[in-house]
Design goal:
Layout lengths: L3 H9 L2 H6 L5 H7 L23 H4 L10 H6 L20 H7 L1 E5 L2 E7 L23 H13 L5 E6 L7 H12 L6 E5 L2 H4 L6 H9 L3 E7 L8 H12 L3 E7 L8 H13 L3 E6 L14 H12 L9 E4 L8 E2 L2
Parallel strand pairs: 2-3, 3-4, 4-5, 5-6, 6-7, 7-8
Antiparallel strand pairs: 1-2, 8-9
Helix pairs in contact: 8-10, 12-13
This protein binds pyridoxal-5'-phosphate (PLP) and iron/sulfur cluster.
Amino acid sequence: MPEPQSEIQHFAKNWQQQLADAFNNIEDLCRYLHLSPDDLPVSVAATENFPLRVPLSFASCIEKGNPHDPLLRQVLPVDEELFAYPGFSNDPVGDLASATQSGVLHKYHGRVLLINTGSCAINCRYCFRRNFPYSELQLSKQKEEAAIQTLQDDASISEVILSGGDPLLLSDSRLTKLILQLDSIKHLKRIRIHSRLPIVLPARITKELICTLSRSPKQIIIIVHCNHANELNERVIAACNSLKNSGITLFNQSVLLKGVNDNAEVLGDLSEQLFCHGIIPYYLHLLDKATGTGHFEVSEAKALTLIRQIQATLPGYLVPKLVKEQAGAGSKQTIL
Ligand SMILES: *Cc1c(COP(=O)(O)O)cnc(C)c1O
Ligand code: SF4
């Protein structure tokens, strides 16, 4: 159990060590949060295929002693994950199985998504990737070379999206090499990185990383993933500031989650706080219906009501687009 003194020591470590120290079992996390696992609907069985994983930086934003904390709900393995909800399946988006073969997803015009790594610093219980063996979600060196060739050969591609898993878990040397290769592709205009690390492991935003990113002649966009304003602690804010100050454009995507952010006040506050720290609200996703995530579902009707409520009080640029992913569609589907 990290005491305040050891928390200071923890946050002085480098990101790899902080990641290695992440909570990986229910007991340790509950002890740190002053909660008893016996009083919670926790499930060890739910961790068998998808372990608990929570970096201390994220855990430190959870209110101690609150079993209903919205951040805790995102990471605590519970009984409901084992319930069968109708309409929920292992590959709700319908493309992950094929994408694991090549590590490349080219579904939308002009944009190619690379699955650079299967792993994440945090295991979000609502994630649609939870049912895929992480090791199969890797872009191996060979696949990466083939992917770069694909990008080079297709002049209609103007943007490459590094995704995963979490692409910022790649080492600085691999990222630097990859970005240098992308830099040499003339028709590419933008490199976009989808990462939850600035939010859950802000130590990852090192000077070296910022150097690598700001050296690129391409426009760099980072889309972070934050679901609740409580996730924005002082380390997160500092990391986002340094990204922003080096000329990187920051957007946020959230998932609409029951018991986490299915409330107009929470969503409005999230938008306000994000923007306050230089991050523009981009998407609010309806949950992908993956097995084990049924208890997070918010109906489309409720989602629309929520969006209308925040639209009535916030400037337009603080209202994220409500979207869902539909198998076979040429873009994300905006819900109006
Ligand atoms: C979401 C997604 C994108 C990016 O879509 P935008 O609407 O541009 O944010 C690109 N490719 C794939 C496969 C995606 O799932
Ligand atoms: S960070 Fe993203 S990809 Fe990783 S577990 Fe969470 S939701 Fe899934």
